[in-house]
Amino acid sequence: MLPAYDELPLRSGLRCAWNVWHPEGGDRFGCLNLLTPERAAGAARLVERGEVFALNWTMALPDPPLFGRAGHRHTVTGDSTTTSHDDVLDNWNTQSSSQWDGFRHIRHHAVRDDQPGTGHFGGVDDDDHGVDHWAARGIVGRGVLADIGRWRAAQGRPLRYDEPDAVGADELLACLEQQGTQVAEGDVLLVRFGWISWYLEQDPAKRTWLADRSTFRSAGFHPGEELCRVLWNLHIAALGCDNPGVEIWPRGSHLDEPRRSEALSDPRRVHEVFAHTMLLPMLGLPLGEMFFLDRLADDCAADGRYDFMFTSAPINLPHGVASPPNALAIK
């Protein structure tokens, strides 16, 4: 049985799951260890209609890319007279559209400063934490959807997608309860805020504003230890969301400026304003961003069933930091 969040050992004063599955250290999978063959087989038994929902958004969006990332250039080799074509992608950032954040994406500076190592999950060396490890085993299990965007709208509090409108961990639980959705150990939890639906309605000027890191603002989860506690205690294998950063942006915008600056500058408090620094390097929870969940959410709302078989095949890129999910939900 997995320990509760408050039972996890401390590392640099913070709850840490480095040795939960591999006491000897060197864990490259974290919560993905929960995806056992038995759970994969159980997920397959959920398939009734054979309806398949592709969860990758187009690689062409968002355009311009967010967070100062550059767009890729797609060249098709050959011409109308050649026998074959090839694709060539230049300047492709694996985090420019739908993505898994791998464990190499974020380190914890307090852990790195307190002891030997890089501060990445499991104490694994920086360049040995690539998504190729995830690709070699694949990600297959039961998926569950929390349609927070639809739930918030029904509450009369629709999300403000271009503001740091924070969704509390208690709201996640309330949404799941209202749906009648039970989260089981080892599930992949997908959370639809409705951000992609909103983005597709925006004009070019608004999309350019969103691409400017200095002005970008986005709804998402309220960062802080309570979010970490709730997500860990659900004992999920991974978390995939449809917004750009899982949590609100700018980081710490739920706090007044003095408290925000203090937390951002203190490695032992930065999780108060940026939950990534706990979820990835300390708890080993893979984070998905900009998953395309709208078709799946519509279907779940129509039939009242929010669980399905989930599959994901990250790219087999040695030392890779992140990957498109190449994910499917099958009902």
Strand content: 15-25%
Helix content: 25-40%
Q: What would CATH call the architecture?
A: 3-Layer(bba) Sandwich
Name the quaternary structure: single chain
Fold and architecture overview:
With 331 residues, the protein is of the alpha/beta class. It has a single domain (24-68, 97-330), classed as Glucose Oxidase, domain 1, CATH 3.50.30. Helices cover 26% and strands 16% of the residues. The strands form four sheets. Strands 3-15-13-7-9-11-12-6-14 form a nine-stranded mixed sheet. It has a two-stranded antiparallel ribbon with strand order 1-2.
Give a topology summary:
Blueprint: E1 10-11, E2 14-15, H1 37-44, E3 52-54, E4 73-76, E5 87-90, E6 99-101, H2 109-114, H3 132-137, E7 139-146, H4 148-154, E8 166-167, H5 169-179, E9 188-191, H6 195-200, H7 204-211, E10 220-221, H8 225-234, E11 238-241, H9 257-265, H10 276-279, E12 287-289, H11 294-303, E13 307-312, E14 322-323, E15 327-330
Parallel strand pairs: 7-9, 8-10, 9-11, 11-12
Antiparallel strand pairs: 1-2, 3-15, 4-5, 6-12, 6-14, 7-13, 13-15
